[in-house]
Amino acid sequence: MTGARTVTVHTLDAGTITIPEPVWCLGHPEGPAEYRADVHHTGPEYLVDTDRRAVLAAEVVEFPFGDHPVPPSLYVELFVPTATMDPPGLEGLAVVLEERAAELRRLALRLAVLRAGGGW
After folding, report:
1. What are the backbone angles phi and psi of residue 78, rounded to the nearest 5°?
2. Cα 24 from Cα 100, distance rounded (Å)
3. CA–CA separation, 77 vs 55, rounded Å?
4. Contact, 54 vs 48, CB < 8 A?
5. pLDDT for 61
6. Are 115 and 71 spatial neighbours (Cβ–Cβ below 8 Å)?
7. N or C: where does the chain have the smaller number of CB atoms within 10 Å of the terminal CB?
8. Exposed, middle or buried: residue 17 (CB in 10 Å: 0-12, 13-18, 19+)?
């Protein structure tokens, strides 16, 4: 493991701040965050699709500031595309959802390890 990393972020309300940056963080946008509470870490995104349409996206995030800091967590966004499906289409969707549920369980285990002080 490498030494501790830090990142310097410019905010509009707190000026320039330097904070620890987890190894899983992919970086920070160049522009200033609107508020210090908006400063966050974001990890790789996991995109799930079926029939070339996004169904679910998940990424590791951490919001270290604010009234209620968020420790490393998995931000999950569901996209519910409407569709009229025939029996094979429904079966295919069910298979994808089962596979993605298994992937979410794996990510939950990885998140538990991360929160316990391990790596991503």
Report:
1. -100, 135
2. 22
3. 8
4. yes
5. 95
6. yes
7. N
8. middle
Instruction: In whole angstroms, give the CA distance from residue 110 to residue 30.
Output: 29
CA 120/CA 114 separation, integer angstroms: 6
Confidence of residue 41 (pLDDT cuts 50, 70, 90): very high
| pLDDT value at residue 94 | 86
pLDDT in tens, 62-93: 999 988 999 999 999 988 767 788 999 889 88
Own/partner contacts of 61-67, CB < 8 Å, gap of 24 or more, are 62/22, 62/25, 63/37, 63/39, 64/19, 64/39, 64/40, 65/36, 65/37, 65/39, 66/36, 66/37, 67/37
Please state the separation of Cα 34 from the chain's center in Å. Answer: 20
Strands (E), the chain: 6-11, 15-20, 41-50, 53-63, 70-78
On the question of pLDDT at 25 being above 60, the answer is yes
CA–CA separation, 14 vs 20, rounded Å? 16
* CA-based nearest residue to 120, from 67, 41, 57: 41
